């Protein structure tokens, strides 16, 4: 199992320490903190991690995969200037996260013209099952219904917005969801939600959160087209990957390809919708419909298949470059 410790002045790749790796294997995942003092990391350096995140101990559990992930480093981005802290651990039953919600990568300028809020520390404490099971019911999450999941850095995934318009389109607000037409953050260019290059922005309470692909975090993980990149965990306990998956979901030797969602713009536009001349299709959540088989993924932006961490297969989600960008629902039991 891979242990990951990341600090401002030290980092270690445990695969290079044979004796410690053997000890960890013998102890079946018991962890100990390790530091490296012969190489100091400067503030301009970025921590890197291996794609080897561990392998699940059994086909019906996520135990053994990233059960020790600890990060505690100052982020000197102008709009942050605070320590990013995230601590994931497993207790045999649950995967637990304690974090402060501060991102671990460069962010855009906040406040900005489209987003008047300032990033601030949060109190994040969640527990997800280590034995996720698919449900016959799809559960919608996000906003007041609760986070759909968290990226490994402890930053929340929340793809929907609180913005909406009334039927005529002459009364729209980015912070009031009382209208019948819910405004999307990323699939339109009529409204400016002030998202940065990480497809993220800040809620009024200071919560920095992702609406789409967390590019800065993926870069820190060395994410690329040569390997699947596990970036987080959904509320039902299933893993979340970024962008690339096997072209044959059940064949780890098949080539990697960019996953696409299975949502398409509606063909029949409602008479009660605000004018498409003012608000082109794609502006609102209701402009999109799930069309099974039109992409690689299901209605929750996931699928069953093998991954490097789960060679026997598991249900897993994807962040995608196509709508819905991040899942808006979960397929597992809560």
Kindly provide the radius of gyration, computed on alpha-carbon positions and rounded to a whole number of angstroms.
20 Å
Please provide the ordered H/E string of secondary-structure elements: EHEEEEEEEEEEEEHEEEEEEEEE
Shape: globular
Low-confidence stretches are 1-50
Structural class: mainly beta
Beta-strand segment tally: 22
- Spatial arrangement of strands, main beta sheet: 12-13-8-7-14-15-21-20
Distance between the termini: 26 Å
Helix content range of the residues, please?
A: under 10%
Largest sheet report: 8 strands, mixed
Mean pLDDT: 88
Number of helices: 2
Strand content: 25-35%
Explain what the structure shows:
This protein is mainly β. 4% of the residues lie in helices and 28% in strands. It contains 2 helices and 22 strands. It has helices spanning 18-26, 215-220; strands at residues 3-7, 68-75, 82-90, 94-99, 124-129, 134-140, 149-151, 156-157, 164-165, 172-173, 181-182, 200-202, 208-210, 230-234, 239-242, 244-246, 256-258, 263-265, 288-290, 302-305, 314-319, 329-332. It has an 8-stranded mixed beta sheet, with no helix packed on it. A 5-stranded mixed beta sheet has the order 1-2-3-4-5, with no helix packed on it. Strands 10-9-11 form a 3-stranded antiparallel beta sheet, with no helix packed on it. It is globular, with a radius of gyration of 20 Å. The model is unreliable at 1-50 (pLDDT under 50).
